[in-house]
Amino acid sequence: MSLKERIEADIKQAMLAKDKTRLTALRSIKSLILLAETEKGAPQALTSESELKLLNKAAKQRRESAEVYAKQFRSDLEEVELAELAVIEEYLPAQLSEADLVEKIVEIIQRVGAQGPSDLGKVMGVAARELSGQADGKAISAVVSRLLNNTNA
């Protein structure tokens, strides 16, 4: 079952359950999928990789909005964003733990042969590609920076 079919089935369930928050989150995902499918030059059906990118984009938007609302002391809006984020995360693969992320990045650093902070771009390119969907980009960047700065010390 494709992501689009799963979302459509879950929208029906959310409508029957009268779950407004879930329904809003699912409709936003469906909207992103439809926009991607109707984009000029887009293939007929989305690949699982492009579906994953859409979900990550939606999750990132919710996280950033929640942070902004938290800084503005708008807990009511923050809660809505976090609830929608929880729904979106149900469709994402499991995220790596901090220890697993460090382990994988250490292996990538060794494979690439990075020596210090000057090799950040080289490591980030490989890490972002290999760990896409398994970890947040900010988390990957923070771990890579920390590890490369420590190897130089």
Automatic annotation (TrEMBL):
Record lineage: Bacteria, Pseudomonadati, Bacteroidota, Cytophagia, Cytophagales
Protein name: GatB/YqeY domain-containing protein
A molecular function (GO) term: carbon-nitrogen ligase activity, with glutamine as amido-N-donor
Organism, as annotated: Adhaeribacter rhizoryzae
SUPFAM superfamilies: GatB/YqeY motif (SSF89095)
Superkingdom to which the source organism belongs: Bacteria
